[in-house]
Every structure is written in C-alpha cells, then in structure tokens.
Design brief:
Helix content is 30%, strand content 23%. The chain is an alpha/beta fold. It has two domains: 166 residues, Rossmann fold, CATH 3.40.50.300; 62 residues, Helicase, Ruva Protein, domain 3. The protein has a six-stranded mixed beta sheet, sandwiched between helices. Strands 2-1-4 form a three-stranded antiparallel beta sheet, covered by helices on one side.
Length: 260
C-alpha cells in the first residue's frame, strides 16, 4: 500500500472481495479524511463487516487498491468479543492484554471513552454499554488516526446508542481522526454522521445523511418512512462539508441478494 497526503487517511479504489468463490464486495471506492465521521449502512449480508475487515487487513482484496496515510494507526471496535467470565479479569488487566500498557495510558483511554470509573471493575460485572465503552477505550490506546466501529452499539437501547455516538463525536473533535462506523441503527447513527454510504455488495449511494435518506436506492432497501424519522435525530453542524455535495449513485440495489 502506498501513502497518501496527510489529510486523506485512507483511500479504496475499486476494491472487490471474494470468498469461497462468491463476490462479497464489488468495486468499492471511498476516501476517508481526518476529522470526518462516515457511516456505512446496508441490509444484513451486504458486506459491511467484510469492508471493515478488509481495511484492517483481515481480508485481502481480489482486485482494486487500498492506500493509507504514512504510519497510520488504526483502532478497531469489533461487533462481538467473547470473554470467559469464569476468569477473574479487571478492566485494567483486560486493557493490558496482550501488550502491557501504562496506568496513565489506560486512564487516558478510559476517560476518552467515557469509562474512567470502570478501571478496577471486573469485566464480568459490566453492563452492555459499559462493555462497549471498554472496547472503545481499547481501540483508543493507540491514539488512532482511523477509528473503525463495527456495530459498536449492538444490544444497547436507543438512549444508550445515542449517548455512545455523542461520545464518538467528542472523540472526533479531540483526536482529529477519521471515523468509519458500521451500523443497522439507521436514524441514530446517521444523525451522528457527516457522510453516509449505503452498501449492498456495491455502493448504492452516498452523501450527506439527508441526501442518502431521500435517495431511491436507500428507500428501496429500508423504506421511505426512514427519511422522516431521520429528522428527529439530526444534529446541527457548526462546520461545513462542501465536499459532500455530490451523491454518486450506483446501480439499482433493491434486488436484496444475500452476501456474507
């Protein structure tokens, strides 16, 4: 992979991914810049998690190219993490596995994730929201240039999800990192986003949340009622996103094919 300018954290150019002879992602092109929050939405099996795993190197593209910023640091919050709760394991100890980190680094990461009070708590005693914040703290230990969140609020109720995404907005401001989120919570997560990518094996459409919510390709997948609901959660920006004015739309994606 070659390096990009400092502003661009990551660029994918017509990346395709195949597994076991099946096409999972086809011709995915996207650029992530510092300081922006981009959300990937799509139906189950649309390739959202595959996209993130390709970015972190767990999957290899079958074609296309991926370029990243020089010495990029990537933080990753997985969709699920299974822990043996029969083992005594504090949050402090968990954050030092597999590589030991300093008390100050742990404290800073937990504070940034809104979980500073959990350091001495047993992992088995954490609520769902607390567990996700600890996973977020783990991803923040490297002070990432790019933060990837794969269904990070899975299992949380709507207020809990909204609070989690408010924390993500704070992190964007504090770290000036690019954030790429995958979620099925269309209204709440889109309200926290600068740009949305609708994925169904290929990029169906992309742009500012309101643009995507009104796009025929998006409504074919999720229904026209989601457009009005989005307005309930949309936050106000104090900054501009002139580069988001265009919303290239791909082929009609209402075919509902199954991808993994």
């Amino acid at each position: 992979m070659s390096n990009l300018s400092q502003q661009n954290v990551l660029t994918l150019d017509k990346v395709s991914v195949k597994a076991q002879g099946r096409q999972i992602l086809k011709n995915i092109s996207l650029t992530l810049k510092r300081g922006e929050i981009v959300t990937v939405v799509g139906p189950n099996g649309s390739g959202k998690s595959t996209l993130l795993k390709t970015i972190i190197g767990a999957n290899q593209p079958s074609s296309g190219s991926m370029r990243h910023a020089k010495k990029i640091r990537i933080g990753y919050v997985p969709q699920k993490l299974h822990i043996d709760y029969t083992l005594p394991l504090t949050v402090r100890r968990f954050l030092s596995l597999p590589v030991k980190v300093s008390d100050s680094a742990v404290h800073e990461a937990l504070q940034a994730a809104g979980a500073g009070h959990l350091c001495a708590r047993q992992m088995s005693q954490l609520s769902g929201g607390q567990f996700q914040r600890v996973l977020l703290a783990r991803a923040l230990l490297c002070k990432p240039d790019l933060l990837l969140l794969d269904e990070a609020t899975q299992g949380l109720d709507q207020p809990g999800s909204a609070e989690f995404y408010r924390q993500i907005e704070k992190l964007r401001q504090e770290l000036d990192c690019a954030i790429l989120m995958v979620s099925h919570e269309l209204h709440v997560v889109m309200s926290a986003s600068d740009r949305v990518i609708c994925l169904n094996g290929h990029v169906c459409c992309e742009g500012a949340p309101e643009q995507v919510a009104s796009a025929p390709q998006y409504q074919a997948l999720f229904g026209s009622g989601t457009q009005g609901a989005l307005a309930l959660y949309r936050h106000e920006h104090t900054h501009s996103h002139d580069h988001l004015d265009k919303m290239p739309c791909g082929e009609e994606c209402s075919h509902g094919r199954e991808l993994s």
